[in-house]
Amino acid sequence: LVSRENHGSRTVVSVAGVPIGGDTMTLIAGPCAVETPEQTLAAAMMAKSAGASLLRGGAYKPRSSPYAFQGLGEAGLQILADVREETGLPIVTEVVDAHDVELVASYADMLQIGTRNMQNFALLQAAGEAGKPVMLKRGMSSTIEEWLMAAEYIAQRGNLDIVLCERGIRTFEKATRNTLDISAVPVAQNLSHLPVIVDPSHSGGKRDLVLPLSRAAIAVGADGIIVDVHPHPETALCDGPQALVGADLEALAAMVATLPAAV
Ligand code: PEP
């Protein structure tokens, strides 16, 4: 179902009217985690000023440590919905449990499946039945074939509105949080008709890598990028070191403004 072979044209996924794929280069930005209404609104305004057409933000955070901030749950979804009302930006947010899919889908414009859940097949199937577009991040230790098979689980349930997201994979290299597999973008685009976007924030894990990796994503023909921003990264409850702010955000905005088909 997701293979390019049996599909004439490339798919353009519409997220509440915002296209991902086709001639557009879509910027998705927002905080890694929803923390407070004020922080989320400030991050959304930053995202908008940088040219983002979709707001990201996690209310359910699948953290490596059980002692780390786990997200606000439904209260976080309500904050996102309020900020959407205020900014007009549709919401992309992660769901981590099949039992929460209906609830998250009732708030979200697009469901995000994170790297740690790429092969959570019950979750993929539930997301496939939720009636909302799905962003499927590549498992950090998954091959491209496994990634496409995971997308197939969603598609099999009748949902072809799937966006693939390359977010870096595990390698021996420790200088970066993950190794951005930039070649995965054209490889996945050749094998599948689905749009492929890049997450330079979670791959590099460092603010100063976000711009160079974003440029790489654009150069290689990605259909979009998803970037963390935070009004006060030094006090962020999740992934502050990779969040853009100030001059780095302005540099992203300047770059997005030069894209011929920026949304
Ligand atoms: C995220 O985007 O908030 C996230 C946790 O990403 P990943 O699943 O790629 O680690």
UniProtKB/TrEMBL annotation:
One GO term (biological process): aromatic amino acid family biosynthetic process
Q: Where is the DAHP synthetase I/KDSA domain?
A: 17-256
* Key words of the record: Transferase
Q: Name one GO molecular function term.
A: aldehyde-lyase activity
- Asked whether the keyword DNA damage is assigned, the reply is no
Q: What is this protein called?
A: 3-deoxy-7-phosphoheptulonate synthase
**Organism this protein belongs to:** Nocardiopsis ansamitocini
Parent-protein residues present = 71 to 333 of 346
